[in-house]
Structure formats: C-alpha cells, structure tokens
C-alpha cells in the first residue's frame, strides 16, 4: 500500500515520528548507561586488598567512601529499573540481568547507613581532636572529594555540631579552590556556612572565600556583612587579626566547643592524657605465673598474670585464648550480631548512642571452644560460673564506643534479684586495635590498651557488697581497626566462700 503517493507521504510523517521516538529512547539508554558507568568507575576507584578487607576498611574515611559509593550504586539501580530499561544487560556466564542487580541493591547501604558512618567520623573528630585535613592525610586513607566532605558538613550541621560543620566546610572550600571536580558549588557551600550560628571561628573562613585578595576597606567590609552575619563590629575587627593581619584560618586546636564537661576525664584518657599512675606506684606492680591457689587446670600451664592497676586491683591475664579459638568465637558470633542494647530505667530505651557496637550471646552448647573459654575464666578468677551470664561477644567498628558506665545493674532487674549483682567483669580482647579502642576508668585515671588474646579482670563490688565507684569504665571509640571483645559477667550469688565478705566498707 506504500506504493501510492498519498501513502508515501504518510510514511514520511511516520518516519519523522519514529526517528524522534528512537532518538529519545537512545538518549534515555545512553543516560542510563552513563549513570551506570559512573557508578562502576566510583566502585573501581576503591581498590583494596581482597585478602584482608577488614584492615582495608578500618580507616574511617575509607569506610565512608565505600559506603557512599555502594549507596549511590543502589540508588542508580533502583532509578533505572523503575524506568523499564531492557532487562538483560549482560550475557555473561552468571546470567546477570537487571533484576538480579536490583535484588542485590536491596542489601546495599542506605542513607541511614551513610549517615551513621558520617556521625562516627564526627565522634572521632570530637573526641580525638583531629581536624579533617589530618584525618584525610592518614596512611592508606582514600581521599574524599568535595561532595563527600560537604555531606559530612551537612550531617554535622543537622546534628548541631556547628564547629565540626565549619571545619568540614573549610576543607570542602579548600578542595574546590584546588580545582577538584564536584557537583556542589562554592555558592552552596558558603550558603551552608551562612546558616551556621555565628562564632568567631567561622567568619574568617567566609571572608577568605567571599572577598577578593586585595579587599582592605574595613568600613565597606562591615557594611557588606552586617546583614549576613549577626555580630558586633568589634567581633569582626578581632576576628580579622590573624596571619598577615587578614583572612586567618581556623586554628586546629580550637575545639573547645566540642567538649562535654561531664566526661572530659574519659575523653582525655582516650587520647592518652591524664593517666594517673605514678612511677612510684608503677614500680610496685608485678607480673607472675600463677596456679590460682593450686587449681588443677593451671598446675601444668600456669596463667600469665600482670598487675595493670593497684587501687582497685585490675589484673591482665595473657594468652587466655588461642588465635584459632578466637576465630571460632568470631565465626559463631557473626550471624547473631545485633545492635548492642543499653537498658535505661528512666526512659526504657534499649538502643542508645552511649553504646555503639553489635553484640551476640554464646552458650556452651554451641561449641566446645565456648565451654573451654568459660572453664579458663573460672580457673583464673577462682569464681563459681553457675551464676555467670553467657559469653557476650561485641564488635566495635569505626567510631564504636561505650560511654562511661558501671557493670552493676538496677535492682529491679529479675536476673540480678536472683543471682545478685555483677561481682566481677572479665573482658577478653579478641583483636588488637591499631588506633583507639582503649578501656578507660575515668575515676582513677587508668587506661588499658587492647591486646589480642588477653583478659582483663576487675571486681565491681567491694568486699562489703557495696558497689565500687572506682570501677566506672568506658570503651573508647575505635579510630582505626575493628575491635572484638568477649565479656563474662560473674554474679555474686555462690561466691560467698570464694571471695569472702569484709566488715570494712573500704575493702
């Protein structure tokens, strides 16, 4: 029928419409292909060792970059599948298609996961007093681009950590000034800076990037910024005093607003400051081989006992578990790991930012290794395990912490009413930690470093049965590495003749 002229004319119109539709389709497919290629390039830019992935992602910024790239990949896959892109995108032997990618994307990190990593970075910056530039310069750390830095600044701003936000804004602007490619613009970054409540430390950053280098007219300067920033003129004049008289940069040591007064001792100990062990007291500490008063299990293999602290007595036992035993415990725990819960009798909350870790409980029935660990703990402590809790295994990742707390629980807890309070804590370190992760006691100024295979033991109760206030302790945030520990909490019921009571309230 297309032989006729009239029909040929219609065919021309059909061709025009078909060409437009085909062009639109090709443009859409090319755009989707471009997005997928960008995702692939982002993922390929994160090149780590497959032999030790845990070590590779142990750096905070590297972990953030990995989570962000995977989050972006999942977002792109979901967007493309919603637009009905042709299903088969590969005929490789695995039969991978878009539906399979979409299925895998469901387990990729979410926005919430990315925000959690950003908050962990801010926690580390807060406690360890380290500025973003130094954090980016750590060995083995993947550098963040301006978009990633700006996102951390936004998270800090949303959580009212304004000085941290300013520091990340400063680093974002520095990267943009160096010409690093980014989606975010300098105007957007400065707009966020304008939203930060005015302090003396964020004005110089704004001035540095808003003013031309030869701008020296202070009167005009005052008129220009008096509406944008709410400050008295005197503040401006003082803030202008810095290097070469103008445009001072923020001081790395200006972190006073980031501190929390109620646990400054804890924070200082985590940084290696404020340890109160004197040389005279330290000389009296001893280490020895011990059989636990003639315990048959220790007669032929005495425990290696080291005094870590004198008042109260804190002991460390070395080589309590072998490397193979610790790996078994980690393997058993991984499928059961869940966000660690903290019981608050006032609010009833079970998940708290005071404890950022995942934990699992292991019983002796699950493996002979768990049973052996319990017997070993019983031997070195000399305490009865019948009233002890199951072995709790905890994993503290990037920024993982447990703020100052006592191991004794409220008396309205049914377990504690039956078994008594936790008379002793045994903390087994399953891994070493490269940076951070110390166990600190703020009230006595003690700081204990993780050492793989060792167990630290202390009593939470005085011999009178009263709680020992000196045992307030905390797990410092993990800066680099992954911290695995096993806790064994032993209750007071059944220990009457193993740790005899005292009439003195000070013993």
Summarize the structure in words.
Strand 11 (439-441) and strand 12 form a beta hairpin. The longest helix is centred in the first third of the chain and has 40 residues, at 5-44. The protein is elongated. It is of the alpha+beta class and 507 residues long. Helix 1 (5-44) packs antiparallel against helix 3 (60-82) and helix 7 (146-158) runs antiparallel to helix 8. The protein is built from 17 helices and 16 strands. The chain has a nine-stranded antiparallel sheet, with helices on one face. It starts with a helix and ends in a 16-residue tail after the last strand.
Radius of gyration of CA atoms, rounded to a whole number: 30 Å
Main beta-sheet strand count, sense and barrel state: 9 strands, antiparallel
* Unreliable segments of 5+ consecutive residues: 87-96, 224-262
Oligomeric form: single chain
Number of helices: 17
Percent helix range: 40-55%
Average pLDDT, rounded to a whole number, is 80
The backbone outline, from C-alpha atoms, is elongated
Give, in spatial order, the strands making up the sheet with the most strands: 1-2-3-13-9-16-7-6-4
N-to-C span: 108 Å
- Estimated structural class: alpha+beta
Number of distinct beta strands: 16
